[in-house]
Amino acid sequence: MKKFILAVGLLSLAGTALAAGKPCEELKAEIAAKIDAKGASSYTLDIVDKGTAADGKVVGTCEGGSKEIVYKRG
Question: Global pTM?
Answer without folding.
Answer: 0.69
